[in-house]
Description:
Layout: E1 5-12, E2 16-23, E3 28-35, E4 41-44, H1 50-53, H2 56-59, E5 78-82, E6 88-100, E7 103-117, E8 132-134, H3 138-142, H4 152-158, E9 166-170, E10 178-183, E11 185-186, E12 191-199, E13 213-224, E14 227-232, E15 236-240, E16 247-249, H5 251-261, E17 273-275, E18 284-289, E19 296-300, H6 301-304, E20 320-322, E21 325-327, E22 334-335, H7 337-340, E23 343-348, E24 353-359, E25 371-372, E26 381-384, H8 388-396
Amino acid sequence: xxxxxxxxxxxxxxxxxxxxxxxxxxxxxxxxxxxxxxxxxxxxxxxxxxxxxxxxxxxxxxxxxxxxxxxxxxxxxxxxxxxxxxxxxxxxxxxxxxxxxxxxxxxxxxxxxxxxxxxxxxxxxxxxxxxxxxxxxxxxxxxxxxxxxxxxxxxxxxxxxxxxxxxxxxxxxxxxxxxxxxxxxxxxxxxxxxxxxxxxxxxxxxxxxxxxxxxxxxxxxxxxxxxxxxxxxxxxxxxxxxxxxxxxxxxxxxxxxxxxxxxxxxxxxxxxxxxxxxxxxxxxxxxxxxxxxxxxxxxxxxxxxxxxxxxxxxxxxxxxxxxxxxxxxxxxxxxxxxxxxxxxxxxxxxxxxxxxxxxxxxxxxxxxxxxxxxxxxxxxxxxxxxxxxxxxxxxxx
Length: 397
């Protein structure tokens, strides 16, 4: 009988959720980054160049030659993934046994990486070089590999570990270094009601979902100069992506937010710089979804400013900190872990539904209280909002 599987998460650098699973026979342990913005499970090979200069010795590199259940000859197919940071990973597709919590997935297909280009990580990097478990739609991986294959989440359903392709993610506050992910279930102790359902939207208008995308309809800065001010009020498609560190906004919106912080952009750094003292300001940004009556997630300004790096100073000797907000083009909107640490999300891929609520801060003790997802609905959801297009069509009927 299907149930649920809960895994504790370690939040590396306060940004990246990492889970421990084992692969092969006998089991080899690995730390894999949980990525809701991609669909591949991949990890470096023990016999690759990546192993020589990255921290794979800490996070794990797979030695396929030592696994009795490893199969690669039947595939003879190249694996390739291109990431948003312009890094490329290539290798082969391989099949083996995965141990995930107290469950076992047989004959799982994943990428075994031998080569990396662009931004593969460096000594002490700690996150680019470790493997990744992508939890978005399989459509995203089929876009990069010639022959699509069944993803791990779907195999978990097929093999009776969970009832639906669904999971919930809780990353906890920035002060805590641990959270958890529940496959096939919801933990109502980790959010403040209401838990609101939102239909996923197809950002590419391709009639096939690729990413966890919902509609952001407004962004409000609370207590900016002592008052609340709307920074944007339009329908935008926003990707929920735990593989991205910050919040990436269309240029026009980002410029307003950067102005709020008095941020300075420097081509030497990937993120804008702000005065660290701003982290003490009693202000926040409210992200509103699905219109006037939809859910709101509040992000304190302190969570948008990264901790000070010793020696990073402005010319006047004020301490400088990185702001986890950047601009990209006119359409790109990605809500990464800076947003997700304040948000409890439930992704139901079969129903193409996302449920969100304000996350509770809590002890890092791993003690989930799970309600299993057994059907097409999400337990605990009070309201399901229509998309803006659906609401307009209903009003016009």
